[in-house]
Amino acid sequence: MSEPKAFAKRNLVFPVFIPSFLFSTAEFGIIPSVPATAQLLGANLATAGVITAMMMVGRLVADIPAAKFVDTLGERKAMIAASLAAAIGILASLFALNLFMLGAGVFIVGASAAVFGLARLGWMTEHVPVAVRARSLSVLGGMFRAGSFAGPALGALIIKFYSVQAVYYLPLILCAVAALILFLANGAEDVTKNGSSFKATYLIARREGKKLASLGVASSILSALRGTRMVGLPLLAIALKMPAEQASLYIAFAGALDFAMFYLSGQVMDRFGRGFAAVPTLVGLGLTHFLVGIAVDSNTFLLIALLMSVANGLGSGVIMVLGADMAPKDARNEFLASYRLLVDFGDAAAPNLLSALILPLGLVGAMACFGGLGLVGAGLMFRYIPRYALAPEPRN
Predict the structure, then answer these.
(1) What are the tens digits of pLDDT across the range 337-366?
(2) pTM of the entire predicted model
(3) Residue 104, domain CATH
C-alpha cells in the first residue's frame, strides 16, 4: 500500500504531534505533586487520593460538552483554548489556598484534557488520509506515551531537587508553549459548524448505538485493561516484597518497550487491518493478566511486565484509529465525544473495581477477572470490526 503523494506525516509535527507531547507531559507532570500539595493543605491520604482523582472526574464530565466546544471553535482553536485553560488550572493548583481550590484546578486540567483529546482526534480524522491514518494515529499515541512517561519523571526530579510547588511551573510553561506552537502552526483551516447540543449528541449516540455497544465497549475494555496493568504491576511488586527502586526500574524497562512499538502498530493496522492489532492486544493483555499468579520473584515479575508491554504496544493508537474509522462524517465530534466517554469510563472505573475485587479474591484473582474481560473484548473486536478494517483493499 503506497502513501498518497499529497500527504506527508511530517506535516503533522507542529499542528498535532509536538503540541500533543507537550500537553501530555504537562498533564501527567503535575501528578506527582497533587497528592503532596493536598497533604500540605491538610488532607489525609484518602482525601489526597480524591483530589488527585478530580483530574479523571474533569475528563469524564467534559467528554460530552467537548463536542459542542470543538464544533463551535474548530479543532485547532479548541486545542489552543484547552492548552490555555489547562494553564489556568495549573496556576490555580500552584497558588491553591485550600483543598477546594486545588481540586478545582486539577478538575480544570482534566476537563481541558478532554477537549484537547477530542479536538486532536477530530483534526486527524478530518485531515489525514485513511491510507495512512493508523500510522499517523499510532505516532500520536506514541507522543501520548512519551508524555505520560516524561511528565512524572521530570516532576519527580523537580520535587527531589527543588520542592513540590516548583513542579507546577514546568507544566505551566509547556501548556503555554503548546498553545503558541498551535497558534503559529501552518496547516489546514479549522472546520467549524453550529455548536452541537447535548440533545444532538445523545441522538447521534443513539443512532450509532450499535457501534458504541460493540466496538465502543470493546475499546472501553481495552482501556480498562491498560488501567489495571498500570495499577496491578506496582501492587504485584509490593506483594512480592520487591525493593521500590527495583520495581520502578523494571516497570520503566517495560514502558520503554511499550513506547518502542508504537510505529509498528500503525504499520500493522494500515497494511493488514485494524483487527490484526486490536484482537492480539486484547488477547495478550487478557492472558498476561492470568499469568500474574506465576510471578514468584523479580525475574518473573519482569517477564510479566515485558509481556504486558508487548501486548499493549501492538495496539498503540488502536482506540483512536477505531474511533476515527467509525465516526460518521455528518456528526464526527458528537460521535467521538460519546466514544471517548466510554473509553475514559473504562480507564477510570477499572482501577477502582480492581481494588474492590482484591479484598475478596486477592490480587491474582482480581487480575484474572480482568483477564477474562480482556478475552470478551477480543471476541467483540473479532466479531464487529468491519471486513474492510480486517483486510483493506490494496491501492495501486
Answers:
(1) 999 999 999 988 888 888 889 888 989 999
(2) 0.84
(3) 1.20.1250.20
pLDDT tens column, 229-257: 888 888 888 888 888 678 878 887 888 88
The number of distinct structural domains making up the chain is 2
Per residue, the 3-state secondary structure of the chain, as one string, reads: CCCCCCCCHHHHHHHHHHHHHHHHHHHHHCCCHHHHHHHHCCCCHHHHHHHHHHHHHHHHHHHCHHHHHHHHHCHHHHHHHHHHHHHHHHHHHHCCCCHHHHHHHHHHHHHHHHHHHHHHHHHHHHHCCHHHHHHHHHHHHHHHHHHHHHHHHHHHHHHHHCCCHHHHHHHHHHHHHHHHHHHHCCCCCCCCCCCCCHHHHHHHHHHCHHHHHHHHHHHHHHHHHHHHHHHHHHHHHHHCCCCHHHHHHHHHHHHHHHHHCHHHHHHHHHHHCCHHHHHHHHHHHHHHHHHHHHCCCHHHHHHHHHHHHHHHHHCCCHHHHHHHHHCCHHHHHHHHHHHHHHHHHHHHHHHHHHHHHHHHHHHHHHHHHHHHHHHHHHHHHHHHCCHHHHCCCCCC
Which domain, by its residues, includes 69? 1-183
259 and 284 part of one domain: yes
Last residue of a domain, one of 183, 218, 239: 183
